[in-house]
Design goal:
Elements (H helix, E strand, L loop, with lengths): L17 H9 L3 H23 L2 H15 L1
Helix pairs in contact: 1-2, 2-3
């Protein structure tokens, strides 16, 4: 029986919160940084494009944000 044509996404209860990830980044945890990058980079670029209508500029600004974060 097919219930839905959309994929089922299972979230782990052991997923760290953003606060935990940022605390780990503050302690130079590269894995936490990579997780935040994967989770937020595309969304941040899309938000930037709403304001600037320029993908390259938006990507550059988001990259600068991540450089500052690291």
């Amino acid at each position: 029986v097919i219930i839905s044509d959309k994929p089922f996404i299972m979230l782990s209860v052991n997923q760290p919160t953003d606060i935990e990830l940022f605390a780990r980044i503050a302690n130079d945890d590269g894995d936490a940084f990579a997780q935040v990058f994967r989770q937020y980079y595309k969304r941040m670029v899309l938000v930037g494009m709403r304001f600037m209508s320029d993908r390259d500029l938006s990507e550059n600004i988001v990259q600068q944000v991540f450089v500052k974060l690291w």
